[in-house]
Design a protein that fits this description.
The complex is a heterodimer of chains A (135) and B (186).
Chain A (H helix, E strand, L loop, with lengths): L4 E6 L5 E6 L7 H22 L6 E8 L2 E7 L5 E6 L4 H20 L12 H14 L1
Helix pairs in contact in A: 2-3
Chain B lengths: L8 H7 L5 H19 L2 H27 L7 H17 L4 E3 L7 E6 L21 H13 L2 E9 L8 E10 L11
Helix pairs in contact in B: 1-4, 2-3, 3-5
The chains are: A alpha+beta (135), B alpha+beta (186).
């Protein structure tokens, strides 16, 4: 079954620093914009929810038709956001945890400026592989 | 007193004070980062790192000779082996291998399979010309200069540029004979 999934990393200053369409469904130009829009709208919900719980993984915080938004908030308040239509919570949680580890590696790179775009192709490949594995 | 025996790199490494590897890596990273911001030109950063390494090297050689008890090396081949097996182990915690000798025995390659300086590092597009570990070449150059060997050191392979190892080419330019800094009749 073709699935839709859009993954985005938002820095603590609300700037998107990485985005990837990781679903197996055919890519449509307007869909990408729509996904961006839905995730953007969900940021407010994240803002409220993040401080009510100590958990990093916030599942299904917002929905749009059959699409659901899940978020993982890191300690530095960087948000890993995933828009998906599958209901595989455990998979998504593992996905977030592993991407978090990758993100930490990026952050530890002295030549990377925190808050700037993640341009590493290695990171991109890894994230896409993880998405295929878990989502 | 019995003559001091040369000690192996592992033995010395086991006895010296060490710092956390991540602290070390990130501190070096912060230095490079700062140089990039201050100097802006990648070429300048390479030069500066080399100069910093040189300044470390000319001091480090004394510490090295004091702790390792190595005796005078008979030729450049032995020198290279000592640097690779004892020197690198003592200060960096890894050993290098020495290969690619030319016929005259004045030029060789030190190969580092593992390099604690570059954990986490990935070169962004904006600093492709950067030799991230240029400090190492400076250290070796400085140290050898203090024991009267003028050398020229170039990077042949760099893992950050997609190669499979780090390769430093060490070329002996000339051996400066030891001499008194003053004339006899003064």
């Amino acid at each position: 079954m073709a699935s839709t999934a859009c993954f985005m990393i938002i820095s603590k200053n609300d700037i998107p620093i990485y985005e990837a369409e990781v679903g197996s469904a055919l890519k449509k130009e307007e869909a990408a914009h729509q996904h961006q829009f839905i995730l953007h709208a969900a940021l407010d919900v994240v803002q409220d929810l993040a401080w009510t719980t100590s958990a990093m993984f916030l599942k299904s915080i917002d929905r749009f038709n059959d699409l659901v938004v899940s978020v993982y908030v890191t300690a530095g308040h960087t948000r890993l956001m995933l828009l998906h239509d599958s209901r595989n919570d455990d998979g998504i949680k593992s996905f977030f945890q592993e991407v978090h580890e990758l993100y930490i590696k990026i952050l530890l790179n002295p030549l990377y400026l925190p808050g700037s775009r993640v341009t590493s192709s290695h990171f991109d490949t890894k994230v896409r592989a993880l998405a295929r594995k878990y989502i | 007193m019995a003559p001091a025996v040369p000690r192996s790199g592992d033995a010395i490494f086991a006895n010296v004070e060490r710092v956390n590897a991540e602290l070390f890596t990130l501190t070096y990273g912060a230095i490079v980062r700062q140089l990039l911001t201050d100097l802006e030109e990648v070429e300048e950063v390479n030069k500066q790192l080399d100069q910093m390494g040189y300044n470390i090297g000319i001091r480090l050689i004394d510490e090295f000779l004091a702790k390792s008890n190595v005796t005078r090396c008979v030729d450049f081949r032995e020198t290279a082996e000592v640097i690779a097996k004892v020197g690198f182990k003592m200060f960096l915690g890894v050993t290098a291998s020495v290969t690619n000798w030319d016929n005259e025995g004045t030029c060789c390659s030190l190969i580092l399979e593992d390099n604690p300086l570059v954990d986490f590092v990935e070169l962004p597009d904006t600093c492709q010309g950067l030799y991230y570990c240029n400090i190492l070449s400076g250290v070796v150059r400085g140290a050898l200069e203090m024991v009267s060997m003028k050398t020229e050191i170039t990077w042949i392979r760099d893992m950050l540029r997609g190669d499979d190892a780090f390769e430093l080419q060490v070329k002996l330019l000339k051996q400066v004979p030891e001499e008194y800094p003053y004339k006899d009749d003064e």
